[in-house]
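Hi all, long-time lurker, first post. I run a small reading group and we've been trying to get comfortable going from sequence to structure in the token notation. Rather than ask abstract questions, I figured I'd post a concrete chain and ask someone more experienced to write out its structure so we can walk through it together at our next meeting. Sequence below, copied exactly:
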Amino acid sequence: MVAMVDDEQDDAPRRRWPWWHRQTTTTRRLIRTGLLLLVTLLVSGVVGVLTASTDSSLGPHVAHYEVTAQHEIVVDLGPLGTVLLDSPMPWPLGVEVVVQEIPAELTAVQASPVTGLAGDVAAYAQVVAHPDAVVADAVSALVRDALGRAAMVAGSVLLVVAGARLASRGLLRREVAHAARRPGVVPLAAVVVVTLVAVPTALTVRDRPAPGRTISALAGTPMEDLRMTGRMAQLIDTYGGYLVEAYEENEAFYASVNENLEAAYAQDRAPSRPPGIPVVSPAPTDTATDGVAPPADDATAPVDDATAPADDGAASPEATGSPDDGVAAASEAATEAPARVEPVTFLLVSDLHCNVGMASVIAGAARLSGASAVLDAGDTVMSGTAVESYCVNAFAGEIADDLPLIVSTGNHDSVTTAEQMRDAGYVVLGGSVVEVDGVRIIGDTDPTLTAVGEGTRPERDETVPEMGERLAEEACSTDRADVVLVHNPRAALPALEQGCVPLALSGHWHRREGPEVHGAGTRYVSSSTAGASGGATVGPLNGPAEMTVLRVDSASGRPLDYRVVTVGTDTTVQLGRWYRFPDPADSAPTSGDTESGGPSGDPTDAESSAGTERR
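-- Answer (accepted) --
Happy to help. Here is the structure in token form:
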């Protein structure tokens, strides 16, 4: 009897995976589903990445990008040869770039071919100086395309599996196993799999470009590891010195500007606010603070560094009596006066026109001035083309991540530019209020587009005056608007004249105007921060570049004071004196003011008698 039982047990079929068959049906189903999803995601991810492509830009060129398995960046210049770089992507991924045309909108008609060639060399020098900004948009586009393709493949696979299960009435595994037992099915499947792997691998090996050679002329630049093949390699090796000279000249110029900016702020006795002026209080008070009596009228003449106290906030013995009395008064004031609110500082720039050399200078000025945000009054690029994304990315890449970059796009920017700015982290004004440390800013994108050689055309069904009326209506209907930031100064006038905004900031004219009283507010027009008044803006400055540091009382929204930072064509940096914004309530101009209430002439030139700044 016992022997018979043992024989029966030995004859019972043994399962290959005892652990698997000990699981419940639900557990096995969940594991199979999980493995199916995992394999599907891996396969679809590989397919999505290896087939990703996009049309983007490469510097000023339109270019087509495709991901490859060659682990090299290959830039195809057509009959001129190829440019090769080691791929920063995980092995074995690389990218092939087919360079195409430069858009006509970026090509101005030049009176002299030599002038045009010099401009092209300067533009390529900027590309060499900011290679990361050049490919930033292309990288983002490739990632989005890869994700989209992977999602499509994964969805298709899962749809096929679901359809097969439905067709087999839930017996798909049994049907597959039955088909696999048929003669020739397994070998055929193996051949298909090997083909799918071997053919792409063979094509990759066959299409691998020649190794190329390094270009001695590019030594010491961010492109020193670049390798080239064909006729272009000889041309660049022979004449690339001109490009390198332009690059080095550009780098040296703006490095000197940054050094001079640091030195100017280090020597300034009032780097962040006018000397002797107390911190603004949210409520009126007659009590002196910081040992200095508040001025009786905030609209008095600007503080002159030559007559200001040596230490910011420190009182003279004549003003406060003995030092002990001053300390006692300050202590008493500290206990009785309401909490004071420090004004909000902004750095205003405008009309950058793709001069990415100024990007680091703007970032330095924002840091040294203690700005809470950078205000860009528009015309950041030249023609609003898609290939100018490298200009947008270069500016955004220099600004600290925690510093808001608020822009009201100009007539040389486009809808495409605005979208590129949003992708790069800009806050693009769109007709509603944006708040920075309690200061409420309103503005909108310019409704027109001006492209080089093509004139100006509308980009939406609205004119500049109509946009101004709409912004005024929005500013008047909101709880409070403190600053209207627009590119065209005409768009700011309705909000000022209706008394809805105390301060309007703009650019567009490439010259500084104001500050001057309009209606119940003050208008200030910024000059170009790229030296656009001197002609071309790419490369070292051809004209003075200006930025404006200004302060606004966050408690009341009232503009307080400003100073102009001027960068000269000789790399010098001049910090202008601090000036008070004019008070619209004052009907009579004070000493040193123009008829509109603003300071006369250039704040850095006390002898100027012109009503506006340099044209």
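A couple of things your group might point at:
The chain has 15 helices and 23 strands.
The longest strand covers residues 559-567.
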